[in-house]
Amino acid sequence: MSPDRRTLLRAGLGVTAAFASGAHMNTPIHANPNDGPRLKGELSHDGTVRAAAADDFGRIVHKPPRAVLRPAESEDIATLMRWAAERGLKVAARGQGHSTYGRALTDGVVVDMREFNRIGDVKADRIVVEAGATWQSVLDATLARGLTPPVLTNYLGLSVGGTIAIGGIGGMSSRHGMQADHVFELSAVTGDGRELTCSATENSDLFDAIRAGLGQCGIITRASLRLVRAPERVRRYQLFYRDLASLTTDQRRALAAKRFDQLQGAILPDGSGGWRYQLEGAIFYNGDTAPDESTALADLADDRGKAVIADLSYREDALAFAKFENLLRSKGQWSIPQPWLFTFLRGSNAEQMAREIMGGLSNADVGPFGRITWYPMQTEAFRAPLVRLPDESVVFPFNVIRIPSDTDAASTARMVAANRALYDRVRKAGGMLYPVSAFAMSPDDWREHFGPRWPLLRDARRRYDPHNLLTPGYNLFQGQA
Ligand SMILES: Cc1cc2nc3c(=O)[nH]c(=O)nc-3n(C[C@H](O)[C@H](O)[C@H](O)COP(=O)(O)OP(=O)(O)OC[C@H]3O[C@@H](n4cnc5c(N)ncnc54)[C@H](O)[C@@H]3O)c2cc1C
């Protein structure tokens, strides 16, 4: 990063200030013998670098790019975009590569954002970060000042740009919506090679099309993120139920009465063909005095003898997924095909849908370490226009986290096909996709998915990516793939 950019970021200035010069607009593009524009960063054609960008966490789609850009500054991305447009090459940003179906892959140029990860100064209500920063590094910086982003994903090894591009859901979403709802301002390089700042009041059409817009209009380079006071401690309760009905009844009661600060849950394989039903609630507190849990736990129908209760610092709790990651890594289960499916069911028919779908799922469909995420969530805090949820006040994430024992290509293909069939059932019943799922979508599918919001995305795409370059992995627009 140039000294000027570093100074501006450290000063915690708004994204606008960081782009005040506008000098990049005149950067000449020179083809050179190595097939690339003139850049401060590196456009690599190296086979190892390209191979590392040819797969993602899902390990289902494989597509080597022609080159990988490691930008030193956002001007590099703008220059690359104009150079790619002249050659008809597609461009996709890659954050931490945790997509599951090739959404950050392209046979054109991948922009590797991992080192575009500077963290600015923490202000009382915000922080400016580069989009390749992970949520863990953001949290570490903000906790030093007793602050936190209002919504953290369950896994913090994801990039800020990668989750804002899809929404970013976590344990606090019921209260605070998605990460995309807590952005003051974004800087982005659009598909026509412009560097623009956008917010609710400046280039608001781009702001609306970039948050949860699946990378179709621009590559996010910098984000000004909202911060709130972090609780010091978390008491976490895992409560186990005999069946789906009793779990769901208690989850709904807990949600309605706001008994927990975080409410999630899961249906877990029991290893002998059956399922375990788990409510996961967390209460935040400060100081040494533990929270009064009598109200939160009153009259719940769980098997209290099996309850697991943990008392953790807020940071330990936020990083708890890392233990699961380590477990999967130690069992060789992290780097296998992961055909995951993420959906939202309507609150009004969620139990019926879940019962019907569960009737056709076996333990083998998710594997011993897999699970089905299942909990009710209030939708009132969700505002980013391209986040699609069923139009009801309560919806249920229903996510089939498949970490299968059978990892041969035929089994994976069967699971991808099963995801498609499940999605069709969910959609017919008024449910929605969370677009990080492992199966192919056609442009018609996407038009139906975005429904009344489709014109917003389509028109922004025409304005900001007229050459149809960006993020082909979703197959959102005709001729994109
Ligand atoms: C173990 C695991 C846990 C997860 N937990 C959660 C969770 O709790 N909550 C949740 O919401 N999701 C979760 N996900 C899904 C995850 O949020 C998405 O897959 C996310 O897109 C991954 O972020 P990434 O940085 O790895 O992005 P990548 O996979 O690198 O990219 C994802 C998409 O965003 C685009 N993109 C990346 N960076 C930018 C940028 N700077 N500007 C514009 N577009 C960009 C890419 O082109 C691609 O289309 C999880 C996934 C895994 C594998």
Overall description:
The protein folds into 2 domains: 1-230 and 440-481, Uridine Diphospho-n-acetylenolpyruvylglucosamine Reductase, domain 3; 233-433, 3-Layer(aba) Sandwich (Vanillyl-alcohol Oxidase, Chain A, domain 3), CATH 3.40.462. It has helices at 3-10, 15-18, 47-52, 74-87, 135-143, 160-164, 173-176, 204-210, 244-256, 294-297, 314-318, 321-330, 350-359, 363-366, 409-428, 443-450, 454-464; strands at 42-44, 67-70, 91-94, 109-112, 119-122, 126-130, 147-148, 183-190, 195-199, 218-226, 228-229, 233-241, 262-269, 275-285, 308-313, 341-346, 371-374, 377-378, 394-401, 432-433. The chain contains 17 helices and 20 strands. Strands 12, 13, 14, 15, 16, 17, 18, 19 and 20 form a 9-stranded antiparallel sheet that branches. It has a 5-stranded antiparallel sheet with strand order 5-6-10-8-9, with helices on both faces. A 4-stranded mixed sheet has the order 1-2-4-3, with helices on one face. The two termini are 33 Å apart. α8 packs across α17 (454-464). It is of the alpha+beta class and 481 residues long. Helices cover 30% and strands 22% of the residues. The structure holds flavin-adenine dinucleotide. Flavin-adenine dinucleotide (FAD) is lined by residues 56-57, 92-99, 103-104, 113, 131, 153-155, 158-159, 161-163, 165-170, 215, 219-220, 436, 471, 473.
Q: What is the secondary structure topology, with strand pairs?
A:
Layout: H1 3-10, H2 15-18, E1 42-44, H3 47-52, E2 67-70, H4 74-87, E3 91-94, E4 109-112, E5 119-122, E6 126-130, H5 135-143, E7 147-148, H6 160-164, H7 173-176, E8 183-190, E9 195-199, H8 204-210, E10 218-226, E11 228-229, E12 233-241, H9 244-256, E13 262-269, E14 275-285, H10 294-297, E15 308-313, H11 314-318, H12 321-330, E16 341-346, H13 350-359, H14 363-366, E17 371-374, E18 377-378, E19 394-401, H15 409-428, E20 432-433, H16 443-450, H17 454-464
Parallel strand pairs: 2-4, 3-4
Antiparallel strand pairs: 1-2, 5-6, 6-10, 7-11, 8-9, 8-10, 12-14, 12-15, 13-14, 13-17, 16-19, 16-20, 17-19, 18-19
The structure holds flavin-adenine dinucleotide.
Flavin-adenine dinucleotide binds at residues 56-57, 92-99, 103-104, 113, 131, 153-155, 158-159, 161-163, 165-170, 215, 219-220, 436, 471, 473.
